[in-house]
UniProtKB/TrEMBL annotation:
GO biological process: cytochrome c biosynthetic process; cytochrome complex assembly
Organism for this UniProt entry: Parasphingorhabdus marina DSM 22363
Cited PANTHER family: CYTOCHROME C BIOGENESIS B-RELATED, HEME EXPORTER PROTEIN B
Topology in the lipid bilayer: Multi-pass membrane protein
Name of the molecule in the record: Heme exporter protein B
């Protein structure tokens, strides 16, 4: 277990030090900055559509780190070393989910807080946006790890990853963006259920893909 915890913190440190953490943040803020220029200064329109745009940007930002989540450790033999030490593929995948969320989730929430000002979101809508993204970022991290494992070793993995992400992330987008206009809070409950399901499935799906990649 110490080897797994070392891997988690090594991944987090490398992500922050190499700038891999900040690329999704820069992309997210860039998308949020461009949207008001595209639709004009209509405040009501920005309030109505801005939350959905920020959610779409979050999904697209998930694609950016796919190539560094799994493949480097398969290439340099670290994954095999962990297996030799008795750590299962499923546990390695779960560790990847944790490390990726620590490097991806908090910075994305900070970027969403900054970007919401460009959309005119404030008060309860802003709180709902941040809560919905906080609920969904573990699932987004899980999807990224799952897709990275499934596409490891394949040519054009980035493009294939995008094709896999879109259908899997649609429930998150529906309930996440829908929570901004839902006064009852039921959308957040469904979002939480979907997020928990994806987090629970990720270690097994990604672990099976990692096992197949080794064989």
């Amino acid at each position: 277990m110490s080897a797994l915890s070392n891997m988690i913190w090594r991944d987090v440190r490398q992500s922050y030090a190499s700038g891999g953490t900040w690329l999704p943040v820069i992309f997210y803020l860039s998308a949020a900055t461009l949207f008001p220029f595209a639709v004009g200064p209509d405040r009501e329109l920005l309030l109505e559509t801005g939350g959905g745009i920020l959610w779409i940007a979050a999904l697209l930002a998930t694609l950016l780190p796919l190539d560094r989540l799994v493949q480097p450790d398969l290439d340099n033999g670290l994954h095999d070393q962990l297996i030799v030490r008795g750590i299962t593929d499923e546990l390695i995948a779960f560790g990847r989910l944790i490390s990726h969320w620590l490097a991806f989730g908090p910075p994305l929430l900070f970027a969403a807080f900054l970007a919401s000002g460009l959309m005119g979101l404030e008060g309860p809508p802003l709180v709902t946006l941040l809560v919905s993204l906080a609920i969904a970022t573990p699932a987004l991290a899980g999807l990224a790890v799952m897709i990275a494992a499934l596409t490891s070793g394949l040519k054009g993995a980035g493009a294939l990853g995008g094709l896999l992400l879109v259908p899997l992330a649609i429930p998150l987008l529906i309930f996440g963006a829908g929570s901004l206009s839902d006064q009852s809070g039921s959308a957040l409950l469904f979002l939480g259920a979907v997020s928990l399901l994806l987090v629970a499935v990720t270690p097994f799906a990604a672990g099976a893909a990692l096992k197949a990649a080794r064989e």
